[in-house]
Amino acid sequence: MLETESDWWELTMARHAETPDLIGETTIQSPPESVQPPPTSPPSVQKGKRGRPRKRCVNPATVPEAKSGSPAEEPAAQKSRRPDTGSARLLLTGGSRAGKDFLADTLIKAGWVKLGFSEPIRHIAKECFNQLDRRLLQAIGEWLRGSQYDLVQLLGNAGYQEFIQQIRTLPLFRNRSPVIGHPELLAEMVWESAKEQLNAQKKVVVVGARTAAEVDYFRARGFQHWHVMAAFEDIIKRMLASNIDPGSFRWEHPAEKFCSILDAAAWKLNRRVLRETVRANVIWNSDSSPPIKHWWPAKDWLKFIIGKND
User: Fold this and answer.
1) Which of 7, 141, 217, 241 lies 20 to 30 Å (CA to CA) from residue 259?
2) pLDDT at 200
């Protein structure tokens, strides 16, 4: 499973060298002719170890602010690294306490609508069990994604069959077959809510995709995918502040494993891809500076996204 998802992420991240589909189509396109900088003499090109030209990567958050009455001048290459800030669709992934909900909650204050993958899960837990135990929520989430193992282990065979009968009565499953979920079921539920908000001309940020299928589902519908990371010591502090014991936390849970794969791939990507391509879609949500210069500091990312969508 890990190998398959790792391969998926590598291919996804490398694909943008040919097709601009990771964080918005306008992300790596050249700017229109009307805003192209005047022609200049070609700069000297430094060669890498394999004889390939080295491309300079610039953090778009460091672009100087525009002077009054005129747009800021910036290299065409840097313009191509800008996110598609005109988009009203964002998808945030990240491990536990990385800060994706913090970013989404900040966007709410700027008029965005936040939708989470946890919302259908919590609704089912409340209606069927009248409790929001973390292990129960994780088991229901895995059931919706197509795996009944955790839920059967937790409820037993008799309890699981009773759950199946009860869930048939929920409006959420009125037009669905609830015997077991499938990889895109949870994404479909969230998308139904997102469509209503988008049709009402709202800007939507979706939080909490936990599988490759869910990320691909929303990317195929025009959502920009951003992965949120933080320093490990900050994650531990946030867990302790939320009364979560890091020692007993289920780091091996499939949802956490997937986010760990994205974390590891972001570091690997820096070496293999970003040095020769056009963008970073990683947000660093810690007070310390991003360890990789291509990653966006959370404050700069929020300022840029909110400012350009006002």
Assistant:
1) 241
2) 94
Beta bridge partners of 92: 207, 226
Question: Does residue 208 contact residue 235 with C-beta atoms inside 8 Å?
Answer: no
Largest Cα span, the chain: 76
- Can you tell me the distance from the alpha carbon of 67 to that of 73, in angstroms, rounded to the nearest whole number? 9
3 contact partners, CB below 8 Å, separation of at least 6: none
DSSP 30-42: PPPGGGPPPP-PP
pLDDT in tens, 195-248: 999 999 999 999 999 998 999 999 999 999 999 999 999 999 999 998 888 888
CA distance 71 to 35: 10
**Token pair for 230:** 């933080």
Give the per-residue pLDDT at 274.
41
Sequence ranges of the domains in the chain: 119-173
Q: How far apart are CA 231 and CA 262, in angstroms?
A: 15
Cβ(154)–Cβ(125) below 8 Å? no
